[in-house]
Structures are given as structure tokens and as C-alpha cells.
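request received
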Amino acid sequence: MTTHAPAPSFIRRLLSGDLPRSRILTVILIAIVVGLVVAPFLVPGARSLNTSAKILIFIALVASYDLLLGYTGIVSFAHTMFFGIGAYGIAIASTRMEPGWTALAVGTSCAILLSVILATVIGLFSLRVRAVFFAMITLAVATAFSTLMSQLSEWTGGEDGITFKMPTIFQPAYRLFEEPVLGIVINGRILSYYAILIAVVVLFLLMLRIANSPFGRVLQAIRENPFRTEAIGYRTVFYRTIASVISAVFATLAGVLMAIWLRYNGPDTTLSLEIMVDILLITVIGGMGTLYGAIVGSVVFMIAQTYLQDVMVLVSKASEHIPLVATLAHPDRWLLWLGLLFVLSIYYFPQGVVGSLRDRARGT
Amino acid sequence: MIDKGAPLLALDKVETRIGPYHILHGVDLVVPEGGATMLLGRNGAGKTTTARTVMALWRASAGTVTFGGRDITREDAPTIARLGVGYVPENMGIFSDLTVAENLRLAAISGQLDPKRLEVIFNAFPAMKRFWLGRAGTLSGGQKQMLSIARAIVEPRRLLIIDEPTKGLAPAIIANMIGVFRDLKATGVTILMIEQNFALARAIGDTVAVMEDGRIVHHGGMAELADDDALQRRLLGLSMSAHQ
Amino acid sequence: MSKPVTAPVTADIPRQPVDWLPVALPLIVAVAAFPLVGNPWTWLTLTIAGLAMGMIIFTVSSGLMLVFGLMDVLNFGHGAFIALGAYVGLAVLIPLTPWVEATSVLLNSAVFALALCAGVIVAGVVGFVFDRLLIQPVYGNHLKQILMTTGGLIIVEQLIRAIWGAETVSFNLPASLRGSWLLGEAAVERYRIVALGIGSAVFLGLLLVLTRTRIGLMIRAGVENREMLEAMGYRTRHLFVGVFVVGAMLAGLGGVMWGLYLQNFTASIGAQINVLIFIVIIIGGLGSTTGCLIGALLVGLTSNYVGFAAPKIALFSNILLMLLILLWRPQGLYRVVDR
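response:
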């Protein structure tokens, strides 16, 4: 059993009273946060900066999904749709309008509006009947949406996607200072990275606040026992729908960040089934219903994805003469291993990293 | 039935939890072979939970259930049913998409309907004959209750567990039911009935058990309880007999 | 099967109020689409295509509907059996190309039947394993069920890619199933008629089993109230495994048919049709075979009419259809299960 040093009250307030509740977890989280803050200086290079930025965006994306899956106990397959709406909002606004801050603002607000409407309609239609219908209907709507996006190629660039420009300070050619700082040129990429970092920190703390608000507690009560909560007088449909709208808005914002980072958007970067699987897997591995799981899970997953695929290439090459192994180890079969890992995690590791660490700290 | 009065069903310190709720706190109940045992008590006392625990629809977390000398605590519902226990649940459990005939045919585990028993059922509940090929869902509430009871007695059983058969039924139908249950008793089957209607309980019951807060608080002959107004008042609340 | 006891049936059996409106829906949709399409012969072609597609979708959905109704298990991996069916059918047809191309109706039929059987068997076996590994361990937990079966779908789909490749595969129908018959000016593809026939046979077969056999009685009873069935002495676990495997087999059968209907597809064929199946299940209502059939026909017809008139919104039209029906009847067209 670990004993906790009392956290300073401002940190407690910042985290809405929801502390990591495990010494090991606290250390890991602090290491991750520090790591992400100094990443551009610690491991310079485009690839590692890209990985760090993706980790940040996935933290926001997965945490917003956890609000739904972990806290509310309903499965949505439309999370990538909202992610995509955010990214397409920026992409379309930045190509149709003069690229710049106005385009960002217009794209973001339109995307949020669309997400709110869609999430409300889906929620009211499906949750009214049965919570499992929600999973089916979100899947149907998300599939239809991604088909539509690839067909509306005039606006979306179809399967190829679209590239667009960002405000000047986020452009790679921009220099904040003449001289390099600590050996690193502070260019638009670095500035984008820190903008995203700040945005993700704010979003995460906001989500932590929502999850620990009275509203969040009602959601958890519904997850544990929908009938009883309904009997006490809470309209479960209403609460679940609101939860799905909130989750959708955060996913949309994550999509906005993704578009800002990549300066490109296409079906593969935001809408694909693979990303949905990534989100599911990270949520489960990190620990459902913990929010902190999104942080731990995203880091583990992104690092694994970036570097394990290299390993797969090696294994596949090395085993060229063993027919089945070579095929299965081929990087194209990455999703196969993700799927296996996903099933095994649900079966053997349902509390995820954060849940397990908290259990350990509690001594159970 | 050589040893009349030996327990057919016995619950020993049975505890049942449903999710986070602890409902039965050690139920000791003995149902002697032959005759009818009435299980009385206020709403929420744990009567239905007791019946469902015997049927293994909910699992006892502690204690033992013995049926005909055999420990059935760990058996599943189908096994218990096949030992000769007919169950009429509180909500009747009618298959409304099936016809009356199909409901009865399914209730006969042997696969064959016995014409003689069917005749008995038709005599007791003429509606079953009249609506033989009608969808059970179209029956009235009373007819559904009759069908549920008919299903339980479509084959010979050793024990019938009947959960509040008169709930929401018209007095004329209840009067008919009393006759039916008396005839049933005469065939030698043992009955464990949950009932709120004291008049009916008195008319049918031989022994009685009263539940409160997940425990049996009184066990004895029906006649004693029927004659003792003070005891009734204490156990069942004021309204019970005054009501009827 | 027990011989029904000859109880004298008197005259006043309550007439079952038959709910005809849902049955009329496909007809209403067909009539409503007429002005949209314009040309009567095109309309006829589209209608037959829609019915054929509907029957295939019914074949693949029926198993999921029963499993969902009977055990409250929502299998997001159902599409895996369909994809398997399609690829196993392919694996039979390609090596037997001489039979496929032969001018003999007999050889053509034989190879077609062989493909169907292979699809059914493989899907059944995989279904059994799927149930053991992915569904039984999380039985009773909706959330985990959805996650596990989604994982299962991904795994099977990836294995298919590993075995048969990720590229689009295409193959020919057996020779005598190709081409069309002319009905006036309407071209009616032969294979669609065959699909209609097989689908109808599946529907009638299911209906017969469900209404005329003891197993069918148990399934229908279990769909409505599993607990009572158990309390009457029936063990529903075996029943469920049986229904699950048969459902997978039907999905395999439908998968072979769907693959031949599309003639070229990728491993995501299963995940794609999953969406349509869910729409059908929601439209049809829980546990109702007839509801499932009507839902499937509606989806098939709508897809074809809209696919002709406004191809870009074909999938949306099905979602719109579902929303309209949910507005009208929040529980679906017919509902047997009362949960």
C-alpha cells in the first residue's frame, strides 16, 4: 500500500479533486507531462515531434471517448465522425476562405454546431429505445458520413483529402526568434506544437471537471444501474444524450487540432475504421472511466505504433521464407494484431493500466 | 405421501443478494409434503425473492435449499423444474406470441399432452378450451393467469410454487380460483403460494409462514393465525383481515 | 414434435388482430418510388433487384435477429461470417472454373450448390468458435459484448486479407446464372431471381421451423422470456449455441450469395453489410422474423431506387428510412421481445 502525500490544494482544484490516486501513476503522469513539454528539445526531429503531437491530440480524443464509454457506459462508433467533422471544418474553411485566424474560427464553430446537431439527433433517436441501439445507429451514421465525405470530392478532396494553409505563425517557415533556442529553431511547427499542448491541457482539465461534477456522477450512476437511476427521477435518455453531445464536441475540437497540426485532412487521417479501433484500444488499455487512462494509453500506443511497425517490417523480411509468418507479420496486418490485443485486453485486462495501478494502490 | 408432514422443500439460512442489494437475510422455511403452505408478508418482504431463489432464477449466496431430501442449492432452474417443480411467476411468464395450445405443449416436458389432465384443465378453466388456438397475448389478465397455472399443472408435479395468483383479478375469478386450488390439493400435490389476499390464503392454506425484511418471522398452522386477530395485526399489518 | 391434442375448436377463438400495415410498407415504398423512377420498365428492373437484395439481406440478418432476440446478445462480428461466406464461395468457384464456365446447367448448379455448402459449413464452424471465445466469456455484459465482437470482426477480416489478399477480388457467376431475361422492356437478371428463390426458401424454412417444431416453439418462447423457459425445465444454453451456429451458417449462405451478387468485393464486405443488417434489425423489431423480412425488403428496395435516382445518398436513405420508422414505431415494426 502506498500512502499519499497530500497534494497542494491548487493542484487538487485544477484536477477537480480527481487525483491519480496511485503513487506509481502519479510518477508516470508527471513524467509524461514533462516529457511532452520538453519533447521538441529532448528528441528533436520531425518524426518524434509528429509522434508527440499525435499523442497530445489522441489524449484529447480518447479522453472525450472515455466520457462516453467509460463514464456513461455506452459504445459509440461515431467518434471518428466527430473527429472528422472538426478536421474537415478547418480544412474546408481554410480552402474556401482566406486561410488565417478567421477561417480557423469559422471552421471550428461550424464544425461544433454540426456535431452538436448530429449528436443530439442520434442520441434522442437511439437512446430512447435501447442503449445498444446507440452503438448500431452510430455505426450506420458514421459509415454513411464517411461515404459522403469521399463522394463530396469538390469540397473534401475525396479519397485524396485536401491540404491547406495555416495562419502565418503556424507555418513551418515562420521564425519566432532569429537565433535557435537551446539548439532548436523555434519555427511555426514548434509553435503549433505548443499551441496544441496548451489546448489539450485545457480540454483535458475541462473534461476532468465535467467527469467529477454532479452531472458526471449521475452518468456513472446510470452506467451502474440505469433502471434505478431512472426510478430516482433522472431522465437517463436526457443525461446520456447530453453526455454524447459533450463527448462529440470534445472530439470535434481534437479534430480541429489534428487539422492544425497536419495542415491536411483526408478520410484516412480522421474518419477511418482504423482510427476508431485505435480509440477503442487506447481507452481499454489505458483504463475505462479514468480519463487519466487516455494519457497513459495514448503514449504507450503511439510509441508502439510508430516503432513496432518498423519491427514488423524486420520480422516480415526475416521470415520471408516462412510463408504464413511473413504474411501475418507484414505491416499491412498491423490491424490484426491490434484486434487481437484489443480482445485480449478486454478479457484479461479490463481495468486497464490506470485501473490496475489504482487497485494496487488500494491494496486489492 | 406415506410420511405426511415430512418436509418436501426446506430452506436453511438462505441469503440472496441481487446486485448490490441484500434481500434475503437467512430464510428458514419448511414446506411439508402434501397440503398448501402460504407465504405471507408485506410488499418488499422478500417473498418473490424466496420463490425465485428456490427456482434458482436468483442464486442463494449462503444457506441451503433442499427438495425431497436432495440439496438443490447449486442446481440450475431447468434441473429443478425437471425434479417436478411447477412455477407460476408473479408476472405469469406467459409466452404471448405463442398460442394457448403451444404454451401448454411447451410446458409438457415429456412432449406429450395428457388428454386426461387436459380435461381437468378445461373443466377448471373453460377459457383455455375456448381460446385453444388463440394467441396467448390476446387473453385477458385473468385468462393469462389461468394459462400460467394450467401450464404448471399440465403434467404431474411434486411442488407448485405460485406467486400471487390473484393479483389484480376480479372477485368472481378469485372465487373460482379457490375452488381450483382446493381440487389441486385434493390430487395430493404440494403447494407453496405467495399471497396477499388473506381470505384466499385462509381458504386454501394448511400451514403459513410470514416474512419480514428478508426473514421468516412466523411459522405455524393456518388455523391458528386465522383465529388470532392480534397475531395477524402484528404480523401482517392492520388491514389484512379487516379488509376482507 | 407432439401431435396436437384434438381439442374441439369452438367458433369464438379471438380473431388475432393482424397488423397489416408493416406488411404493406414495401408495397407502399415501391408505389411511391414509381414517379421517382419514371420509366415503368426501369422501375420493374429496380424493384426486382431490390427484392433480390432484400432477400439476401434477410438471409444474412435472420440469424443475428434470433440471437439478439433469444439471448440479448448483440454480435457486431456477424459481418465476419458474411465475409467468410463470400470468400469461401470464391475459393470453391475459382478452382472449379471449368464447371463455372461449362455450358451444362447441371455442372453450373453443382458448383453453385457446392459453393453455398462450403460457405455454410465454414461459417458455422467459425461461428461456433466465435461464440466460445468471444461471446460466452462476456455473456450478459452488453458493453464488453460489443467490444469483443467488434474485435472479432477485425481479426477475421484481417485473417481474410492475410489469406486471400487485400485487393478487390472478382469472379464470374456460373454460366447459366449469367445474363438476364427480358420481361417486356425490363431486363431481369437471372441471378436475382435465383437469389429471390433462395431467400424465400430460407424465410419459409425458418417460419416452418419456428412454428411447426418443438425447437421452434422453444426458440420463440425463449426470445420472449428466456427465464420462464428455463423455469419450465429447458436448458437454453445449448439452444443458444445452436441458434448462434445456425445464424452464422445462414450468414455464410447469404455471404456466398452476396459475394456473387456484387461480383467484386474486398474483405470489408462484411463490415459494410453489417451496417445494413443493423438497420434491418432496428426496423424489424426485436425477435420478429416477419419484421426482419420486411425490414430487409425495405432496405433492399430503398437502396435500389435511391441508388438509381440519387446514388450519392443511397446509404443515407436507409438511415432516413430507419429514422422514419423509429418515429412511427420506436420499437420497430413488430416486437416480440419485451425487455
